[in-house]
Amino acid sequence: MKKHFIYSLIGLFISVNVMAQQTPAPVQSSAYSIEGATAHLGNGKVIENSLIMFNNGKLTFVGPATNKMARQGTVINAKGKHVYPGFIVPNASLGLAEVDAVRATRDFDEVGPMLPHIRSLIAYNAESKVVESMRPNGVLIAEITPRGGTISGTSSVMQLDAWNWEDAAIKVDNGIHMNWPGSFTRGRWWLGEDPALKPDKNYPKNIQRIKDYFMKAKQYLAGDKSEKNLAYEATQGLFNGSQKLFIHVSGHKEITDAINTAKAVGINNIVIAHGDGADKVADLLIKNNIPVVVDRAHRIPDNEDDDYDLPFRTAKILLDKGITVAIGMEGQMERMNTRNIPFYAGTYAAYGVDKEKAVQMITGNAAKVLGIDDMVGTLEVGKDATLFISKGDALDMRTNILSDAFIQGRKISLETHQTKLWKRYDKKINDK
Amino acid sequence: MRKLLLVLMMLSVPLLQAQEYFPTNTGVKTTKNTTVAFTNAKIYVSPSQIIKKGTLLVKDGKVVNVGKSVRIPKGVKTVDLAGKTIYPSFIDVYSNFGVKKPRRPRSNSRRPQYDAERTGYYWNDHIRPETDASTQFSFDNGKAKQLVKAGFGVVNTHVHDGIVRGNGMLVALNSSSNDAYRILDKRSAQYLSFSKSVLSRQSYPTSRMGAMALLRQMYLDADWYSNGGAKNKDAALEALNNNKNLKQIFEAGSVLDALRADKVGDEFGIQYTILGDGLEFERISDIKATGAHMIVPINFRNAYDVSNPLLAQQISLGDMRRWNQEPSNLAMLSKGGVPFALTTHDLKSVASFHKNLQKAIKRGFDKTKALEALTSVPAKILGRTDIGNLNTGSHANFLITNGDIFDKSTTLFENWVQGDRHVVNDMSIQDITGNYSFSVDGKSFDLAVTGKGAKQKGSLKSGDKKVKSKFNFAAGWINMTINDGGHFTRIVAQPNASGMTGTVYDIHGDEFSFSATKKAMKKKKKDKKKSKKKKDAPVVVAVSYPNIGLGNVTQPKQETILIKNVTVWTSESDGILENTDVLLKDGKIAQIGKNLNARRAKVIDGKGKHLTAGIIDEHSHIAASAINEAGHNSTAEVTIEDVVNPDDINIYRNLAGGVTSIQILHGSANPIGGRSAIVKLKWGENADAMIYDNTPKFIKFALGENVKQSNWGDNNTIRFPQTRMGTEQVFVDYFQRAVEYDKKKKSGQPYRKDIELETLAEIVNKDRFISCHSYVQSEINMLMKVAERFNFNINTFTHILEGYKVADKMKEHGVGGSTFSDWWAYKYEVNDAIPFNAAIMHDAGVTVAINSDDREMSRRLNQEAAKTIKYGGMSELDAWNTVTINPAKLLHIDNRTGSIKVGKDADVVLWSHNPLSIYAKAEKTIIDGKVYFDIDEDMKKRAAIKKEKSQLINMMLAEKMNGGKVQAPRKKILKNFHCDTE
Known about the structure:
By secondary structure, chain A is α/β, with parallel strands linked by helices. Chain A has helices at 2-20, 129-132, 165-168, 203-222, 230-233, 236-240, 252-264, 282-287, 310-320, 341-350, 355-361, 364-370, 417-430, and strands spanning 32-35, 38-40, 46-47, 50-55, 58-64, 74-77, 82-85, 87-92, 139-144, 151-159, 169-179, 184-186, 197-199, 244-249, 270-274, 292-294, 325-327, 387-390, 402-407, 410-411. In chain A, helix 9 (310-320) packs across helix 10 and helix 10 runs antiparallel to helix 11. In chain B, the strands form 7 sheets. Chain B has an 8-stranded mixed beta sheet. In chain B, strands 17-18-19-20-21-22-23-24 form an 8-stranded antiparallel β-barrel. In chain B, strands 25, 26, 27, 28, 29, 39, 40 and 41 form an 8-stranded mixed beta sheet that branches. The two termini of chain B are 71 Å apart. Classes of the chains: A alpha/beta, B alpha/beta.
């Protein structure tokens, strides 16, 4: 009896715990057909009045609803609604911290300058309340990236509805992230130095240090590896092209130096993150097939005299040059604001980017940047059924209202810690 | 012979000046009673009184007589100064001459210190009126020499430390004398500033507004003390009262700080003399309006090195402009009718003083004004009639020159201080400059002598070829060695009427007589100079308001504007009116209707566009020079109105986002923060013009992690409160004291006026409203209960992220909620913050606003308002009200703005799309009928910035190429203020 009581207590405890977060959806067991929606394919194309069908986690049909074929499985009437591929965020750090001000919850920045062997994968908190808050906005996939140092570490791409990091990972160790040194420096005024901005004398030295590091890694990898070097081992994918090197860099001189340095050591699979001023080196980027992950549109201009809307136009400026652009999420309050990625795309659209191109930046282009475009990013037959249905234009906060979302065909919960509190207190206020 | 005597006399001066009743053991005791007459000089008795060929009679360090026909008594030494000019020597009223700046004592403590270190003095260590510069004074011969060389005779020095710095002293720069004579006044003026003393670590004040509040309370306390109100002794207040009748000189620096200092002074009937920073031209009418005498440094910045375009693009146009405009400051001040003195303060080297002054004169600064700024004005500032002029009875402080003192070519020969001669350039050295020709051994040479006084140099040519030579001119003798291809010839000669005459010693050791003929000067040179001057006429770019790239060169004017066929979001019960006309006239919304007509109105086609009331941000920290006074747990005495910064570029950026009014709130460093400033974003106006007339009174309170310093690090654990429990007690304690204070005040009993308690009493008396930074429900509930205990209501909870949990209680209390749309998870206390908060509070009947607390978010509050539609399903009309009429209601300005209603202020925005849409852009932002942002004008501004930048870059490159000094580029870093910014 007593034993039974304890078991039921444990049971209660577990069920409460489970209730605290949303339970990941089970593997897709039956087909879905979404009919009548405006489908934004993620490659710049739109199908009005579309029919989208998927089964076993994969898209089986994407086309016009006028097609007379049989609808498979559960039919969702989405007339007047919009369907998008799940939004994808490169250069994010979801699940690596929960509450910024609480040090114990921060897991994104390890000690040391050169840490290619540091892996975000294993620290990713699949149960994060911040992670679950992404889904009601259509953000379903993110590249989880370590921060800090020169080589911050290795990122992995996660889908945002999982029991644990193993379930979450859709591309393990997809890239290595490096913060490029600045070529300018300002004196530390608090130590009595001249605060003027001036060329950093150490800049060439800092570049050399990076070059030396990769050269040594390359030598090591070509050798007999009799004594294991964990850090160098971790760079293997960069040299054989299976991993991308994300260089976090701004300024046209710095971007040029970064690309030339990487290429000189034999790294050719490169992505630029931030990329302010990348428009000035467009030819170099295009020639080397290097995309740019720009920052959020909601920034303040860097200089006093800058156009007030310059941060709103970053994407347009680069797209006009023919560069492949995605939108990343690094900087202040980056994790909780990652759910606003559709609205950054929307703002870029308001300031000149074609609306479908804006969608493409956070779907097809983002998938390409992360090297997962064979699986996700666009609504194409054979790809993962990772998509959602919105009441209207998902780039506009008035109409980004989700009714259904699927990851790999799994119908995921759109409930969160936040929606539950809302429902409880809404009931308290409105049922009075 | 006469000169020799004079020199001898001067040499004996130190002996002569031994105090008359002091014994002497080094010679025969004599007294200093020699009279000297300077005749035939052009004498500037004062800048405006000039005597040609006059005589100056000096005795005992004073001017005995001056005039055209002065009788020279017998036995007086006479110095003939024909062709020379005498000026009163200069005065520097802002100096640290002979007084070292105190050094910060070493301290190993990293903990903040809240109390004063001293007892028996004022409660704040940064108030140091008892400081007496004369007790720390030590005459600095080296510095005196530099100043004398630059023409200064008297300096007013003080200890540059603290907010109140005590009395300064007036010193004559007479290195031949001693302190018994050369200290003219030990208590010449009292000095003040906004900077804390380095001698104490006491935290308060941490901000400009705190310093201002401290000064106010100090003046009140000094008054109360002198009326016998205090039971204790306070050496600082006694000293302050003792210094009351001294001249009060305030080190302000920037224009904004000058205006702030003047404001404090005015409130207590004190007119400060104000030290500026040389940028007064940027707001000249405001400076003029202070009525203050200014003290102006002339430390002009070097051009920026713009040769690296990547670096150059980091320099703001405002900084580039300042390089170009600064030298015109004096001319502009003078034209603007601002009285000012000049100072060498801020100059790296006194030697650059004249160079910079000449630059200013080149820019049109009048020479008479320059002389006034160095003589009569500083004398007036110090209230002295015996310096800065050469009237009978004044100190014999004067300069002897060979021409206009402000001309580059003029030589300053002597600077007499207190009747003692200080030779700068030996007047007896003959001017032998000119071109000479002579021949030696049948070879002809041309000699050109240039330079001044002892530094006259000769260069030698034979035909067109330069010939190596050494030239020396000293004590009337020329000594020259010619090195003609290894053959050396030496010449010794003296100048005479036709040139030079002397002896040649040639390579063979033979001697010949030598004579050189001086050639007539060519007149052409002058003409060339003139034409060159015209060519060089400096281009000075226009000043804008504020003086940065996006400032307004001309301020927008109030217009009659008719917007036709527009979709009007009224934010009133009318909701949205399609196809409607709105007339703006005399700064008000004059008419709303169909087919309106108005004469002479500017008509704007609003077809397809949307017109709304301007956005109001209940919680902003832009346009301020300070946000937190963190030195005390209650700072009700400080007000953001003191530190409104009209130069902040974020004002313009907010206008571009359709924002017209904001409440600039104090930060959340303490439970009881400072008073708010409610302003309209009138870009280009000054701070006063931005602040609402008859502004509603607000104060910031705060709860939670920030006030208990949870995230301030381990050193900040000593200030009360450190828990939410303590926070309640801070409020109860202060309100209780405020009630008792108010009771005593109203009873007619004598009381010590306390600005902090006055403010808190206003709250209890329902005359001031609280906007309280708040997160979790427990403390929200607590503050409402505290207020109810004292019979008033909280007006607004700002942030109020758990408002949804107590929305019913808020409704019952009657408090509004001004919240973020979707921020959370940055602190532990926002773990339960939900974006549905606004919707739930709205449903409960609470007046809900969406605010920013952030310079980036504030410029797109329309988007943030739209999030209430996504999160919680608010209607578009209700959503739009959260950034217009609702915040207007919360700020008690809804009778003036916040909706489109006839009679309200013409604060409206024309949008390209539905304003809640992510695709909406503000095209025109209008305040009081003036267009402060126009998307088309903005495009023109961009082009103008590009043009002006390249113009200035060209000028700077020219400066560098022509050998001018340059400095490394600097990037202007704008401070980003949030609630918790210190």
